[in-house]
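Contributing new records

If you add data, match the layout below exactly. Sequence lines come first and carry their own label; structure lines follow with theirs. Keep one chain per record. Anything else will be rejected by the validation script.
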Amino acid sequence: MASLISWGRYAAVGLVLAVTFFQAPTSGRTASAAAAGTSTSSRLNIISIVTDDQAYWAMGASGNREIRTPNMDRLAREGARFVNAFVSTPVCSPSRASFLTGLYSTQLGITDWISPQEADAGLGLPPGAVTWPEIVRQHGYATALVGKWHLGTKPQFHPRMRGFDHFFGFLEGGNQPMNPTLEVDGTTQTLKGALPDLLTDDAIRFVETNRSQPFALLLHFRAPHRPFAPVPEQDRAAVDGLDPSIPQVPGLDVEQVKEATLEYYASIHSIDRNLGRLLEKLEQLQLNDKTIVLFTSDHGYNLGHHGLWSKGNAFWMAGGVHGPTRPNMFEESIRVPLLIRWPGVVEAGTQIDARVTQVDTLASVLGMLGMSLPDGLRQEGRDFSPLLRGQSLEWPTTVFGQYDLHNSGLAFMRMVRTPQWKLVRYYHANFLDELYHLEKDPEETTNLYRLPEHQEIREDLESRLLEWQRSIGDPVLGGVPRPPY
């Protein structure tokens, strides 16, 4: 733990914005320079909506016929739905850091959710790591973060120091779904009402105030993070009478999982209802045609899947066991919804199969807005905006991931995923490595790692994983980590 906090401090001290220690490779590491009509697209607004703990399977547009998400489904109908969107780290703080910077968690020194103790010790998003809100603000955009931050509580990590003109929300990871405590105009207050409603109220105020200039609004909900309830009655009513389908895993407490699923769906409905309010406001202000809406989650979720509850740091809930932590990189933990509505550019109902991650967000946002990457800015992500324009684009089929669990457990996990296979390596531990044949075993029930007949594919994946680790200076390989900024 001490070494992790020290690395976070090392990354945060003595760094100057936009200074880099090494140059990014040219192939696939720059925002698209081919964005036609730059003068027009650079004035587009962008709204980024990020939910907390919403799984890919927890949305009607993903094929769930029991959950009620009409406004998320509307975005999918009117825009593009990515059917293979993933996160590189399946817990909140490192995923959100990568979403903002286009770097991997070990490059940022944030490898697990930031605990209160770590926040007090000075861990947060390193000041030298450039965020895409900082870049768009330099292009004249008004910027706001409304909702969850969870990337440091010390003054140097405050959202107002990281590219946001306006902040209404909370710096820590948790809050109450009802009557939350929030930072409002620089002071902490306890407000009455449901948290999603309060956040959306402020987001709408920001849009109204800045409707005459380009803006970037990041509305980052806490829902559907536990505790799921209470929610407003209209959201609970959305699941009344539903007998939800749940995973068929031996040993699950069926009633417990069904009740948790109902509460989870109701919490997601509270987001969807507020998404509808925001979309309606864009229509009223005649901003639809000039506003890109991006909707995603910080990671996935298990609710009985694999006998687990929660995300990459899930705990056992099957066989009468409640705990301990089961670190994992299962599909349910790393796969997320990703919807992008871009009127006039994205054809309605577009489905994109390319395998993207949240690390691609910075390059892709700049690509959508017609902006170039700052000179020398290291990026691990790639610009997928040409796919939204309907252009052909050579895109990698391999996804890499990492998770250094150190809260409520200990694990150093690295993942490589192809369309057919997933390999998960556990460093500093024996006999835990995993290999799944995703085409034949999409539910990841059979670990093939030690079977001799799969030695060749295992060694190939391990070689590819090692090459990627070396490319990002992965500290689990040894040596002193060097920040790429």
